[in-house]
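[Discussion] Sanity-checking designs against the backbone

I'm trying to build intuition for which residues belong where. Below is a structure token string of 272 positions. I'd appreciate it if someone posts a full sequence so I can compare it with mine line by line.
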């Protein structure tokens, strides 16, 4: 029997878009296909067409699909050198602004934005800053809002925090029980969590800083360009854009609209 996935996959994408409004057509195809096939297996259906029928008729199955389709891997103070560069090179400018708006686009379960909440507190920006954290998946946003993380992760997070230039004992930011830590509510209070789809939604506000780290790698060049244009339009004068270690503005149509602020840490500044 011929492999029909080259027909079934576009039909699945159209079906999901028409039924639920999520547009995955411009996600990088090879990794997307692998993840769809993993859902075929996990749901115990015969093929992509059968998965499509399930998703169209069963909203709970669609929820499972959404949570598992995209990669949510994250950690606190991930790439500590980035946070160190942010403290040393970006904070001095932000400190001169009357108010600072920071957008974490693709925040996953919240580790990145909580790291930033700690950083802005230590750098004296907390009273005049607002952190806005968005993701496509309501499932990860619900976890992010709780601010509860496994205690087993704290050893790595503490090391990252120290390497990032952290100024206190990391344990000052959480209460621990046997299995989990609960971050201090004062950190959570600084953050607004909200659903936002980078493919289809408009800019939520004007920002001084946008972090979109380890999200664009899952998009094809067409979608990357669209999202980079959204970020450009969402940044105020000299606004800062922070990408992931494997992402860059090089060879994109937006390259000349930004100056490179720190090439190693993928920090860019909008040219005004
Ligand atoms: C690998 S995580 C990155 C988390 C964090 N930024 C970091 O670097 O640790 C990628 C996140 O992007 C989100 N995402 C994927 N497509 C998206 C879209 N179209 N709009 C908003 N978020 C999206 C996923 O749900 C996932 O939580």
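Best answer:
Here's mine. Compare freely.
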């Amino acid at each position: 029997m011929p492999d029909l996935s080259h027909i079934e996959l576009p039909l699945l994408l159209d079906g999901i878009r028409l039924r639920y409004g999520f547009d995955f057509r411009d996600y990088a195809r090879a990794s997307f296909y692998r993840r769809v096939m993993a859902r075929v297996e996990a749901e115990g259906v015969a093929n992509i067409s059968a998965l499509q029928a399930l998703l169209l008729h069963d909203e709970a199955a669609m929820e499972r699909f959404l949570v598992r389709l995209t990669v949510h891997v994250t950690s606190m103070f991930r790439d500590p050198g980035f946070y160190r560069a942010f403290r040393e090179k970006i904070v001095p400018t932000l400190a001169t602004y009357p108010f600072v708006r920071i957008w974490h686009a693709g925040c996953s379960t919240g580790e990145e934005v909580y790291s930033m909440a700690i950083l802005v507190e230590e750098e004296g920006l907390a009273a005049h800053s607002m952190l806005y954290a968005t993701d496509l998946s309501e499932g990860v946003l619900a976890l992010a809002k709780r601010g509860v993380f496994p205690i087993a992760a704290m050893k790595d997070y503490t090391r990252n925090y120290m390497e990032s230039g952290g100024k206190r004992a990391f344990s000052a930011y959480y209460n621990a029980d046997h299995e989990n830590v609960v971050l201090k509510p004062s950190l959570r209070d600084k953050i607004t969590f909200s659903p936002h789809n980078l493919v289809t939604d408009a800019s939520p506000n004007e920002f001084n800083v946008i972090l979109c780290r380890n999200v664009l790698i899952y998009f094809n060049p067409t979608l990357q360009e669209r999202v980079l244009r959204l970020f450009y339009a969402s940044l105020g004068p000299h606004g800062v854009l922070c990408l992931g270690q494997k992402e860059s503005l090089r060879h994109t149509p937006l390259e000349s609209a930004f100056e490179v602020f720190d090439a190693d840490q993928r920090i860019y500044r909008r040219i005004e």
